[in-house]
UniProtKB/TrEMBL annotation:
GO MF assignments: DNA-binding transcription factor activity; sequence-specific DNA binding
InterPro entries referenced in this protein's UniProt entry, alphabetically: Cupin_2, Homeodomain-like_sf, HTH_AraC, HTH_AraC-typ_CS, RmlC-like_jellyroll, RmlC_Cupin_sf
Protein name as annotated: AraC family transcriptional regulator
Top-rank taxon, per record: Bacteria
Transmembrane portions of the chain: none
Species annotation: Maribacter hydrothermalis
Length: 289
């Protein structure tokens, strides 16, 4: 089985790496690496896992993940993946935190950059007009070479250091406790849940999948995901329901049962707990008039 922990994507002779992605799936494995990563989704949708954050993703989303923060973008189009169709397109920029040397990060001028690097350890999603501007800046970097590219990367970092239009993704208490072998096991769990969340799943099912007892699996999952397995499944189901409400224009009842919930009352309770809104108010908020 291939290692889920990637080697450095940046050649030793380079300060950064920026490239266009056009692939069946963005991430074949739940993984982490030592580089900072800026990532823009140009095409595709599915579920995004960053640390203990589980959210739907769509075209236009931009995230910044710091070193050793586990992440995975899982496309919802499994048939296209199996047929090797390039359903997913995006732009990724990798760079090391000290690519200009350690001294400059300790300077007074770099205080905001140090702050944004610290926030990136939990993952950052850029929103509103800042996401639009950042998309343009990232696309402009792609053809650049030499020192022009480094100067433009600094322009991008200066922009994200000053914007207030962002959300922190992983919870305050999240720390990466994964070892390389754990990423394989957690990816197997995530893949199973994504494929089966519409039906009833038990701890016994997942225990068999991971060669553990139900009690051991429950403890293991909470340790590495920073939440219980049932909470994780609810997040996946609610994320799917959100897509059905907005993109498929389903009513609340349809979205409830299509997402694996057995009762409307439990669906409404879980939906409000996770999104801080009722399904109806969420639908109205994102409705296009």
């Amino acid at each position: 089985m291939k290692s889920a922990l990637k080697k450095s994507p940046i050649p030793e002779t380079r300060a950064y790496l920026a490239r266009m992605l056009s692939e069946p799936v963005f991430d074949p494995h739940w993984h982490f690496h030592s580089e900072n990563q800026l990532f823009l989704v140009l095409k595709g949708s599915g579920t995004r896992f960053i640390g203990d954050s589980v959210k739907p993703y769509k075209a236009g989303d931009i995230t910044f993940t710091g070193p050793n923060l586990p992440h995975l973008w899982r496309s919802e189009n499994e048939e296209e993946q199996e047929m090797n169709i390039a359903w997913s397109e995006g732009v990724v920029i990798y760079f090391r935190e000290d690519f200009l040397g350690k001294n400059i990060l300790q300077s007074d001028e770099a205080i905001r950059l140090r702050q944004v690097f610290h926030k990136s350890l939990r993952g950052i999603e850029f929103t509103e007009q800042s996401a639009v501007t950042l998309k343009r800046l990232m696309l402009e970097l792609l053809p650049m070479k030499g020192f022009d590219g480094i100067l433009h990367l600094l322009k991008i970092l200066n922009f994200i250091s000053n914007t207030k239009e962002f959300k922190i993704l992983a919870s305050p208490g999240y720390t990466n406790t994964l070892r390389e072998a754990d990423t394989e096991r957690m990816f197997k769990v995530y893949a199973y849940v994504m494929k089966n969340f519409k039906r009833k799943m038990t701890l016994t099912d997942l225990a068999k999948l991971t060669n553990m007892t139900p009690t051991s699996f429950s403890r293991y999952f909470k340790q590495h995901a920073n939440k219980s397995f049932s909470e994780f499944v609810s997040e996946i189901r609610i994320g799917h329901a959100c897509k059905l409400l907005i993109e498929k224009k389903m009513n609340v009842s349809q979205a409830c049962y299509e997402s694996g919930f057995q009762t409307l009352s439990n669906f409404n309770k879980q939906f409000k707990s996770i999104t801080k809104r009722t399904p109806l108010s969420y639908k109205k908020e994102y409705e296009v008039y």
